[in-house]
């Protein structure tokens, strides 16, 4: 009865019921705020357009069509083409072993497979350069990048494998397919969405990563832009490189959309899926155990071992309380401020996208999301240019730095908020008003209360990302600001690997909650 | 000729005895239905025939070839046994044409023609070929799943509750179509279902399972009118169960002297299907078998509850034509058509 009543009410609320319940109208204030944030998030694109227009086509041509850019482009393409297929093989192999076989200790291994995410990419390269000082060039970059980023593929692929309807595999077998061909013709196609999503994430990270590739001495757009920026900040040359980088990002987004297709891979039909049976490995158990062990040894063992080694060499002396404490406090304050700000700014859009979805809202939402896939260097360049030109007093202030954080982590803040606002259906608010609350009080007492945990999660997600952000922080931070990441970076640049170790350890510790959250999230999605 | 022969198969999952010494046979071209409540082991049996489970003991043979016993089991993909699952289990990433053609080797020249003829066989339009599973209705999905399974020319077809996800109206229609298609293809079929009505109307032969055991097997008529025990009697449909004293071929019960199947003596329990009982409206205050306590009008037929004289039983419920219904409180006399069945035990 209850359900029926609410479903009867919903269309009424959309069509004619607004006069009775004015607060439920898609809030004009929310729309205005979301619009403002969306315009703000278009700033990096706008900056590219303005700069291109400013310097004129002739300069653009000389700056973009030159051997150096071609070289960087070739490097980037090789890096993407080598890293992504290898990551797919590693991630799908690991996910299949942990999710679909009777591998011993598979729960432990599934946690271990996600763990490399807790180690920032530039700490990975710091560890490897310690072990093998001669590492440099494309293949070293690919090697470390795979180890640092394959969990971005492992997470969605493992979740997809868990959700897969075993009836499909049974159908394949009954139609005469051997287990190998079932994997190729039935299982793998179902993983397409997960593989596309994870690959895109890795591809974007490869474009924006700075620290990892500098240490391995592999030139990408990101490293070249920072170099250029440090020698002559706000030069047309670095801005144009930024433009090319943005084009690369957009190309990747389009490629992914094309590859993903618009098919639905949801389970067809009704009824609950039978829990899937695990494949027996038999005599293959021992060789198969080696796979997750080797990956874990390379992706976690080596970083932890080198960190331990440096800590051991350094002893108590490297834990300089004032420097370290200062960096830690600054990092925490900056992260929390950025996280809270990003969540606040994401709130109007999250609200609209749940409560009043429509065509305009979708466009605004896309603006909120795309900006997160832009590299930190581009966002930083845009903010530098804009502040230097129009708001000079803001140049190299906390405000600019926080603005960069908001732009970079807006999508993260959106995700948690959207989910939690969706959990506070409008019916509850209506029930509260029916019980005598004013619409405003109903929103505060019901919706805000229910959305609070999700908002907290959003703050945490964004803050944890900010804590390890290196590139934008390096380029934008006011004088005297040292986060864990920038401090670590300046120490390693001076080849003081020993003193850098405590900072790396603290970044790893700060990343752990985020990693755990992602791991649990992927389990929850699969209903476990 | 016996196509499928399951011999004393047992299977245990931890503490649960899923199958206990189950033996089932199916002859060539026949449609056999395995019915039972959920948890009776019928799905385990089906999955064992398909090759997705292995027996702890006993054996499964098809066409005289042992497919599985306690020691070895032929993998599912080598068995050549078709299966249609509850929701069709169509591959969501493939079109209808690719789904149907999935089991036909790629190099096969007649692949396209065969897909078309199979589509026609399951009564779908050729325009469907390029559609994706999510664009099909439940009934269409089942038809495609059936065509896909038939494409491999299976020696045995297994249907795992294929109609239960469909709407009631569609279900009957689909049942007839599937029966017709399988008849035309001449494939021996095993249907697993918890719906006795479906089993009765679909199959030539029924196997009733309960708690991992086969409790009775026979023709639909046999199982409906002559169930071995109370539980089967109630599972197969509505039943009126009455205590009686048997004297040879008749039994004295609350409905008077009723002819019974076979010869019995002493206290027995007899079973009648409600449609065997007819209301003779001329019941008078003196000469009657009971009093109408409730009348439930539901269109063409109505259900009448009659409290029988002289027994402390709940009123029996009889379906009757809605024409000239007796009023609640009226006295009625009840006649019995055909013989009553005596339950064992």
Describe, in plain words, how this protein is organized in 3D:
The complex is a heterodimer of chains A (528) and B (345). By secondary structure, chain A is mainly alpha-helical. Chain A has 2 domains: 193 residues, MetI-like fold (Orthogonal Bundle); 215 residues, MetI-like (MetI-like fold, Orthogonal Bundle), CATH 1.10.3720. Chain A is 78% helix and 0% strand. Chain A is globular. Helices cover 22% and strands 38% of the residues of chain B. Chain B is built from 8 helices and 18 strands. The chains are: A mainly alpha (528), B alpha+beta (345). At the A-B interface, helix 9 and helix 10 of A face strand 6 and helix 4 of B.
Specify the number of helices of chain A.
Answer: 24
Count of individual beta strands of chain A: 0
Which second-level CATH architecture of the largest domain in chain B applies?
Answer: 3-Layer(aba) Sandwich
- What is the total tally of β strands of chain B? 18
Tell me about the largest β-sheet of chain B: 6 strands, mixed
Strand content of chain B: 35-45%
Whole-number count of domains of chain A: 2
Using a beta-carbon cutoff below 8 angstroms, give the protein chain pair with the largest interface and the number of residues from each chain.
A-B, 29 and 39 residues
Write out key terms for the chains shown:
heterodimer, A: 528 residues, mainly alpha, MetI-like fold, 2 domains, 0% strand, globular, B: 345 residues, alpha+beta, Rossmann fold, OB fold (Dihydrolipoamide Acetyltransferase, E2P), 6-stranded mixed β-sheet, 22% helix, AAA+_ATPase (chain B), ion transport (chain B)
